[in-house]
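note to self — DONT lose this again. spent like an hour looking for the file last time. sequence + predicted structure for the chain T wanted, 384 res
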Amino acid sequence: MKGVKLVVGMLALTGATACASSSSYLDNQRAGIALAHQGRYGEAEKLLVASLKEAEKLGPDDERFGNALSSLAWLYEKQGRLLAAESLWRKALTIYEKTGGPDDRQVGETLNNLGEVYRRQGKLVEAEELYRRSIAIVERAPALNPLAIANALNNLGILYTAQRRYLDAEPLLRRALDIKRRALGTERREVALSLLPILLEALAIGDKTLPPTHPLVGDIVSALGALYNSIGNYGQAETLLRRGLGIRERAFGLDHPSVATSLNNLAVVYKGQRRYHEAEDLLKRSIAIYERNYGTDHPEVARGRWNLADVYYGTGRFADAETEYRRAIAIQERVLGREHSDLTWILEGLARTLRSTNREGEAALLDVRAAAIRAKHAQENPTR
């Protein structure tokens, strides 16, 4: 599921105060954002970089320079260029804190955007802190923006969902949905984004109000396909995930992280059907895309290698399975720490593989470690 960024609304605020010398900055910014919405990212980047250069002439602490930084950061985030987006949004945040103070609405919205970048990098603790700070600011900002509140609530709810903290996520997602329904009505794309956890309703709205190849429709059908896979309805899952993959390839190109996610999820469906050779091909493509976009040390790369290890185990290629499980464990430990909940499943997969090669002693140690991690998380997050 995707989080929500807040950038385009800034244009309405800057237009009224822009002087003639900044008209080029505004024209390039508006045109660049419009091209980005059409998926024409190369052309959009040229215009947004030009806008940034013009805005910089207005002064290093000018709010409009912050807006230009935010617009380019937004584009980079859409392209999966997360480190570049993070750098620009941090610069914009510094400007907004100087011009509006620490409780300014734009500070809150930029914290939300930074939180989304961290979430996509797998830095969930940092993302949660930023989302919480964002919510606290936008809820008390003098220029109250209900959609900013809804977006920040929605993103924190998505993060909790990814962590399987469903009881924490549900009230946030419901509140975000209620706010957007009151502000926009029941059939707007912004509402569909908050409806993603309620996937069938979201798809009905998306099919009614958006073009069939819109990226948001791709997100919805992909999430719904993953849900069908989780309940064992592989045929419906494959249909939806293939549809989502096609939409994302047309919208973002073949090398985008969203495409990698679709490939991974479709491979998981094939894995569940023991269609291992098809799954292997998709997983190798997915991992390669993630590594080109994020580098080799990223949670999504670890997840892909974990799934690939499962496939190798299923075909009896135990040496290859062991290699991939160990790679996944090493990445998880470096990026998320030695006690992350996902490690339990990977450790148990490696233990199962070692038992298949008569290495019971090593396998037993892995099972003990996995059980200790699971017990720790059960104690920290008891069922309520």
